Known about the structure:
globular
Amino acid sequence: MSIAYLDPGNIESDLQSGAVAGFKLLWVLMLATIIGLLLQRLAARLGVVTGLHLAEVCNRQYQKVPRIILWLMVELAIIGSDMQEVIGSAIAINLLSVGKIPLWGGVLITIADTFVFLFLDKYGLRKLEAFFGLLITIMAVTFGYEYVTVKPNQEKLLQGLFIPYCKDCGTPQLEQAVGIVGAVIMPHNMYLHSALVKSRQVNRADKREVREANKYFFIESCIALFVSFIINIFVVTVFAEAFFNKTNADVVCVNASSPHSSLFPNNNETLEVDIYKGGVVLGCYFGPAALYIWAIGILAAGQSSTMTGTYSGQFVMEGFLNLRWSRFARVLLTRSIAVTPTLFVAIFQDVEHLTGMNDFLNVLMSLQLPFALIPVLTFTSLPSVMHDFANGLFWKVAGGLLILLICCINMYFVVAYVMSLHNLGLYIGAAVLSVIYLSFVAYL
């Protein structure tokens, strides 16, 4: 479950947050993680109390047409997440091979990795969990290395975490703050978490045992998200310390003979970084080791998030459609859908366009959020579903306000993204789609 808070889309959001706003948006990251934790708690409670995961409850509660629309929206989120994993892994492989393996080659390699995970799955859930633990440890060690190497200012770090204020922040910083929320809270993760808790044996006839299970799942989630939060802080603070308020001219160590020289024109424009450029600049400032260690961390993030999409896709398809596909067939379908556009961009465009896709995918994920949050709050508030464990008044009001806030943030994010493209036809199309989208959200 915590892997969804550490996928390449998240890492991209973290590093841009540090480079654009310095330490000023750390409190937004912390707040988004806490909100994510509370929502994960609701998803886990639903699975523990009912013995059904969120997609199965949606299948029982909604009519056929809205149920199918909801399923398509969640599938779209899973495919978007899959694309981010493919992009992140391809970039990491390209960096590790010093450009010898082209981006499209990295995309093709990531097709194979899913089936390796499926092979691991045959050996049992605990072994797979241990492997995920190993990948998270790799991320903690690699990004922790960058943190120790760069030595961020600890006073600024604490101020950024605990003072919810952004001095001298303009539109780029505000958009980045909104992007953090969209990148941290992942829609398909609610469906995944409500299903993962079913792997543990709970006697649902015994209220005391159900209450105890809810408590320990919450503690488990707190520990998992605390670890992912620390790793996210490593990334934000490294880029805040090293690259905030820097210009392209400051990247003096990328000389004309370097394969990366075209990335940084020698001018006084503000330095813009992404997963690819971030690795190059880290290597530039702190030695080649920093570049390779960064790439290993990104590869671990990309590989681990593979199975998040695989498992949630399996649960969503079975729950919404009562369709029992083999996991192999299901992965083959969604991975093909995710890889095809990514492969075309990797073949015919440069790394700039590939990393630019991550921004678009974060917007897409943000748009899908209500299709997970509204059902999970609705069903955990219904006594007919949750019996004695239904949400109290506080959770209903707080959850409702939270979802309203997230919907408003997402709409702002989408409007800002569309406006930046300067295309009248796109404005009109976006306006029509927004009306349809908001109507369905209101129906839910």
